[in-house]
Specification:
The complex is a heterodimer. By secondary structure, chain A is of the alpha+beta class. Helix content of chain A is 13%, strand content 19%. Chain A is built from two helices and five strands, in the order ββαβαββ. Chain B is globular. The chains are: A alpha+beta, B alpha+beta. Chain B: This is Aromatic ring-hydroxylating dioxygenase subunit alpha.
Amino acid sequence: MPRLVFVEHDGTVLEVDAREGESVMRAAQAAGVAGILGECGGCMSCLTCHCYVAPADMDKMPPPQAMERELLSAIVDVRENSRLSCQIVATADLEGARFDLPEWQG
Amino acid sequence: MATQAKRAPYAPQLRAENYTSREFARAENEHLWGKVWLVAGRVEELKNVGDFLTFNVATESIVVALGKDGLVAYHNVCPHRGRRLADGCGRASQFRCKYHGWTFNLDGKNVLVQDRDDWEGALDDERIDLWPVRVDTWGGFIWISMDMEGESLTEYLETIPEYLDPFELEEMRFRWKVELHLPVNWKVALEAFMEGYHVAATHPQLIKVAGNDYTQSFAQGKHANFGYWKDVQPLGTSSPRLAGNVYADAREGVIEFFRQIEEDLNAIQTDRDFEAAKKIMDVLPPDADAMTAMVTAIELGRQAAADDGTSYPEKLTFEAMAKAGSDWHIFPNCVTLPYFDGALWYRARPDSRDPENPDKCVFEIWSLKRYGPGKEPQVETRVITDPVNESVGLILDQDIANMAQVQAGMKSSRFQYARPNPVQEVEVINFHRTLERYVLGQARG
């Protein structure tokens, strides 16, 4: 059970024990992380689970696939470390990984 | 001061079909809306990057958003299978079609086609970006034009900025918004506010204190205005149509004018102006003349605005106000009545749920006001589908009561054309002359 660290836009920190194999988006939703909406359930049609992965933690997970990369480019406040949290699978490697949340989702 | 060139006496005519025929409504949809600049909303509605609003007119739908580099506007349709992309208003960093997920960024560029490889590269030569619409701003309004080769907004507005810039409409914010769904042609609704000739018969209570209600009106290119320029009397005095002055004390007449505007219209002049006007009872003697009473009330209003953290517009002198007159028609579908402290703005459109029906329209009334920093209210649009039973205040109720009667009356077999007043109803006359040039290719009659 990797422990994930979510930092809301207002600075609130939530530490969440994620089940291995579930998506980071679902782990955040289950723990009540306000900055992750995940309205579509994880099929990349709503773009409301956008997060910033701490640069030091980027190599703990596989890079985004082509479709996710293209969709990320359409998000106004996209950065180099942007990801859709529904496309990141929680594994033991993610222990301690930090996810900062944007000001708004959409 | 406006002057009217002498011309031979004439009795203008306006074709009844312009209001009642389905064929004319269809021709408007084909030749008018796509060729003119239209108000899509207020700049204040889009505050953050990603905020969007949609504007439907006739068969068209336009989405306007605040992009990273300013306003952007597109035809609100997915090039894939034609689904409308955005609905209402909200905030999103991209337009994503709910049907198959095709996605467009705020620059209108297609950034995702699901399973794009299925086209084996053939999509590269196909148009899959959003169709752009021109967008600009004036007076705090967002304007759009679907005519990519047409004139600029500045050219389109002609003399309007010269007359109306001093009012600083861009400094005002929504005070309230009403959207009426009416069983009348969009022009019938708008024209209720395009002349002052109706005031004595439709609003008899008003002429006791509104000064001389006689108006003159003038074409201003495509647009037009009317004002009270002949035998001017101060606000608070009675119309010369009445025998004598209703209020012997001029101060009481002025206060009654501001009371009626505040309580029965709730627009143009403001609540702040009404409260300020009441103070003339303290600062002026009972025998003050009418002009002194009116000017003092206005100066107290100016002071009240300053005390509230705002001001009256610096360049809006009494001369500038007299030059502009009281009411402007901005072709094709807006009318405004601006004042120092507030303004009324009307917008009329065919009902886009039944766009070829000449007997239906969506008619909006926006009351705008100058506010001190951070004092503007959060305003929701009040939608009214049953204006007979839901009031928008005495004065507007009186205007709205005429509309359905006009639409019904014009269908009489004997009524072939309207006979507008050549001095006081030039806004209406010029409207149809201009409209017919767009819709029929030439002005008739």
